[in-house]
Write a structure and sequence with these properties.
Number of domains: 2
Distance between the termini: 55 Å
Shape: globular
Strand order of the largest sheet: 3-2-1-4-5-6
Number of helices: 7
Radius of gyration: 20 Å
Structural class: alpha/beta
Number of strands: 8
Bound molecules: zinc ion
Helix content: 25-40%
Order of helices and strands: EHHEHEHEHEEHEEH
Strand content: 15-25%
């Protein structure tokens, strides 16, 4: 029987790690295929241990500036909605106050505390998951991973190399730490090419007028260039 897996993504860690993933392909930026990422990690684990893995759910933990902080959060909200609606993640987004100084760690403390609570909560409920894949190598998760493993669940840590492509200095991440993981870590940057979103050009039917047009748009509803133009003129 396939092992049941849940993927826990520390959004702050993933955001910071993206630059190293881009650099691996010699690029400054590209779109990450968020819909594929959890399956990619499960496939990697399945190959490494030669067992079938069934992905139960992906949980994503992130922050958003509070309404009070008067930041324009539209783009961020759209991204989190996309993770929920299109990639079928379960998002846990915490409102944070912004403006207490650059060195404030309040945001990330919320993310990691929230993730640690969930990884342990689901571990304690029978038959939810067999393996937790943690997308972060932050040492702060060590106590949660000890506890998850005490409950008989297995853990897979997803890490990243330094921007120079070497191992992180010993003792600074979960990698090499005892009693926190059951398998060799997966390094995100080793999968940079598979993480890159490749938009396929294909023909789609306009929802408004029914005409067919070539597009790379992969969202649920497609409107042709003419109907989009009319819509904008109305605005
Ligand atoms: Zn149309």
């Amino acid at each position: 029987m396939a092992l049941k897996a849940m993927v826990f993504i520390d959004g702050a860690w993933l955001y910071r790690s993206r630059a190293t993933v881009f650099a691996k392909l010699g690029e400054e930026n590209f779109e990450v295929d968020y819909a594929r990422l959890p399956r990619l990690l499960c496939e990697e684990l399945a190959n490494a241990i030669d067992e079938d893995i069934s992905l139960v759910r992906t949980l994503y933990f992130g922050t958003i500036p509070s309404a009070r902080s008067s930041f324009n959060t539209g783009k961020q909200r759209a991204f989190y909605d996309f993770l929920e609606a299109t990639c079928h993640y379960e998002t846990h987004i915490h409102e944070v106050e912004v403006g207490y100084g650059e060195n404030s760690l309040a945001d990330e403390a919320w993310v990691s505390m929230s993730l640690a609570s969930s990884i342990l909560y689901y571990a304690a409920i029978p038959s939810v998951y067999d393996v937790a894949l943690l997308v972060s190598d932050n040492l702060v998760y060590a106590p949660a991973l000890y506890a998850v493993r005490k409950l008989g669940k297995r853990t897979q840590v997803v890490s990243i190399h330094t921007p120079e492509g070497t191992e992180q200095p010993a003792g600074t991440t979960l990698v090499g730490k005892g009693r926190v993981m059951d398998f060799a870590p997966i390094y995100l940057d080793d999968h940079a090419a598979e993480m890159k979103l490749v938009r396929e050009l294909r023909k789609r039917i306009c929802k408004q007028c029914g005409r067919e047009e070539e597009t790379t748009w992969a969202g649920t509803d497609f409107f042709c260039s003419e109907c989009r133009g009319k819509h904008h003129r109305r605005d």
